[in-house]
Amino acid sequence: MRHYDLSPLFRSTVGFDRLNQLFESAFDAEETPSYPPYDIEKIGENAYRVTMAVAGFQDKDIAITFKPNLLIVQGKIEDKAAAERAYLYRGIAGRTFERRFQLADHVEVKGAKLESGLLRIELALELPETMKTRQIPINGGEPKVIDAKAA
Length: 151
Known about the structure:
Strand order of the largest sheet: 1-2-7-6
CATH class of the largest domain: Mainly Beta
CATH topology of the largest domain: Immunoglobulin-like
Mean pLDDT: 79
Shape: elongated
Strand content: 25-35%
Radius of gyration: 24 Å
Structural class: alpha+beta
Number of helices: 3
CATH architecture of the largest domain: Sandwich
Number of domains: 2
Low-confidence stretches: none
Helix content: 10-25%
């Protein structure tokens, strides 16, 4: 097992405590699950989409849970008739899954849609007004407005 010392990164940063946990969990993962396959897209300045290939699953078979900084997608098919079938080859995966996505602060889930075997989850980064870029006046004075009227 490798151990990486990330302390130099934290010498000049404030509030990135979770970053250390993310690095450790990424390096500690013994085997990364590959089912179901997914894409993560940036579709706008503050908009993202997670698309998962979930062929064979219906709305009732999928649960999407959103917690602060965490999106969990779970799938479980309750197909009692499949147990009675005699498959010669079974290549369509309909197995239970759980996929977790770590989200940045202020990322919100806007909606989800299942269409043609693809589950699309819309995400948006919504910064509060206090975190948006703003100009700070020097010496606390109000900026002067010059009237452009002709004399």
